[in-house]
């Protein structure tokens, strides 16, 4: 691929968020770059539960907003929550019309599931492979568009800016190690999350926060990086990444047991359930998920059944050992309602972005919804010249900005262990300070840099709230 010199927008990433941008831009031309084949390595392909939307007769976007706000420990942005939950029903209808094979009830209406933190059944799903079904459908449509120039096998390495701090290009690396530069004044980051930086995760191992590193190095603001969600029911059988046992299992009646006894309301928000599971394990109790009484569990959850079977267990007859694992980043590159970052010419969509929807803890099945809404917002903003006037995101904290370097960084496993021990389910100032100090010397390396940003963000917040649980302070943030 040669060097481009025009103003064609470049979308980095081919998960649901990036694909949505490319699709919504049509017939406007764009370039989509991805390290592997289209959709490969995208966390949206792994999403099991579905997409949340207030479609039921007993539901409303306002109730969806209340549940989102409550699950996020009342730390989400009220305007963002209202905007995205209001858009949700139409998003699901348009995806269904596009060909997403959502499950239907006997009356041919969408079958809506219940998940933790939701007060109504509002999860539109396609079996327990919803993310793959939605993402593949959108990818199939994008692949037919003449307006989208797709380049695979390219890893984004760094962003280029001009003397005024505006986006000027993107440097990528091919599989052979050769560097490729694209000159453009419009880039959309859709690079996914950062769960691969932790030793126990349900994310692809490639989810290392690369988009956060690239954006931060050119001055983009980040927020809430310490709000990292731990899914309470990852299958604990020594695999990396850990297989996910979907929230919908508990919504269908699966129970959590510690040494044979229930210990938590399984349908509370994930941060509450994860903390309860962690506490039981720390007390030496064996925690399992019991799905044996879930009706038709093998046919209702075939993907989970396959994951469990691959680990030598049976979903219908075995007790499944579980442990919390990093699942989703609520924070990221800060964006406004148009998905603009604080750097002119740079947008961020999907998990790499901090939209304000999730607050301190993501409500189940809100991530695919956010990917579509934020992707469509970015596409709408990319068309025309209004974006040149700048966005609404404040400037970054200058002390958080570090340059990349050529010196070798630490082994990724070392970064993973540092974050696992310091930024796990329960945290202390002592552990966080040690992590900040240790990672500070390695910030020329992208993985260590993002780890340092996470630990630094956690250390700066003395509260115990949402997915950020400090055991050395009170909920109000004073010394305990």
TrEMBL record:
Every FAD-dependent oxidoreductase 2 FAD-binding domain range: 10-368
The protein's Enzyme Commission number: 1.4.3.16
InterPro entries tied to this protein: FAD-dep_OxRdtase_2_FAD-bd, FAD/NAD-bd_sf, Fum_R/Succ_DH_flav-like_C_sf, NadB, Succ_DH/fumarate_Rdtase_cat_sf
Keyword vocabulary terms for this entry: FAD, Flavoprotein, Oxidoreductase, Pyridine nucleotide biosynthesis
Recorded GO MF terms: L-aspartate oxidase activity; steroid dehydrogenase activity, acting on the CH-CH group of donors
Reaction it catalyzes: L-aspartate + O2 = iminosuccinate + H2O2
Coiled-coil boundaries: none
Domain of life the protein comes from: Bacteria
Cofactor entry: FAD
A Pfam short name: FAD_binding_2
Pathway participation: Cofactor biosynthesis; NAD(+) biosynthesis; iminoaspartate from L-aspartate (oxidase route): step 1/1
BP GO terms, sorted: NAD+ biosynthetic process
Entries under SUPFAM superfamilies matching the protein: FAD/NAD(P)-binding domain, Succinate dehydrogenase/fumarate reductase flavoprotein C-terminal domain, Succinate dehydrogenase/fumarate reductase flavoprotein, catalytic domain
Stated role: Catalyzes the oxidation of L-aspartate to iminoaspartate, the first step in the de novo biosynthesis of NAD(+).
UniProt family annotation: Belongs to the FAD-dependent oxidoreductase 2 family. NadB subfamily.
Protein name: L-aspartate oxidase
Organism name: Allobranchiibius huperziae
């Amino acid at each position: 691929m040669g060097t481009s010199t025009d103003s064609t927008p470049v979308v980095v990433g081919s998960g649901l968020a990036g694909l949505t941008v490319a699709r919504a831009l049509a017939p406007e031309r764009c370039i989509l770059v991805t390290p592997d084949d289209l959709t490969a390595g995208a966390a949206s392909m792994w999403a099991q539960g579905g997409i949340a939307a207030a479609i039921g007769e007993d539901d409303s976007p306002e109730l969806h907003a209340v549940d989102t706000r409550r699950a996020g420990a009342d730390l989400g942005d009220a305007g963002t929550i209202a905007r995205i939950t209001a858009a949700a029903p139409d998003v699901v209808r348009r995806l269904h019309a596009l060909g997403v094979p959502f499950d239907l009830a006997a009356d041919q209406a969408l079958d809506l599931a219940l998940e933790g933190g939701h007060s109504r059944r509002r999860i539109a799903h396609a079996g327990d492979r919803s993310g793959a079904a939605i993402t593949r459908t959108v990818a199939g449509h994008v692949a037919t568009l003449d307006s989208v120039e797709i380049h695979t096998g390219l890893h984004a390495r760094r962003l280029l800016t001009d003397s005024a701090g505006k986006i000027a290009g993107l440097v990528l690396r091919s599989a052979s190690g050769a560097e490729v530069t694209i000159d453009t004044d419009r880039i959309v980051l859709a690079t996914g999350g950062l769960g691969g930086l932790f030793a126990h995760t349900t994310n692809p191992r490639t989810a290392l926060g690369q988009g956060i590193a690239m954006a931060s190095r050119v001055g983009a603001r980040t927020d809430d990086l310490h709000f990292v969600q731990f899914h309470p029911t990852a299958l604990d059988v020594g695999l990396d990444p850990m297989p996910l046992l979907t929230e919908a299992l508990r919504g269908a009646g699966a129970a959590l047991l510690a040494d044979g006894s229930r210990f938590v309301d399984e349908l509370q928000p994930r941060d509450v359930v994860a903390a309860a599971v962690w506490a039981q394990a720390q007390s030496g109790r064996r925690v399992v998920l019991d799905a044996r009484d879930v009706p038709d569990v093998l046919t209702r959850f075939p993907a989970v059944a396959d994951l469990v079977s691959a680990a030598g267990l049976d979903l219908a007859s075995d007790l499944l050992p579980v442990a919390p694992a990093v699942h989703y980043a609520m924070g990221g590159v800060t964006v406004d309602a148009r998905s603009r970052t604080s750097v002119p010419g740079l947008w961020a969509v999907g998990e790499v972005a901090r939209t304000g929807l999730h607050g301190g803890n993501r409500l189940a099945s809100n991530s695919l919804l956010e990917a579509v809404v934020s992707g469509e917002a970015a596409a709408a903003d990319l068309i025309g010249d209004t974006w040149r006037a700048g966005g609404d995101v404040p400037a970054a904290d200058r002390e958080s900005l570090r340059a990349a370097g050529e010196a070798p960084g630490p082994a990724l496993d070392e970064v993973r262990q540092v974050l696992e021990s310091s930024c796990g389910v329960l945290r202390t100032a002592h552990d966080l300070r040690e992590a900040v100090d240790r990672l500070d010397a390695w910030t020329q390396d992208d993985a260590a840099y993002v780890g340092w940003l996470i630990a630094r963000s956690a250390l700066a917040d003395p509260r115990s709230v949402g997915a950020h649980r400090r055991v050395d302070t009170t909920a109000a943030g004073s010394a305990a």
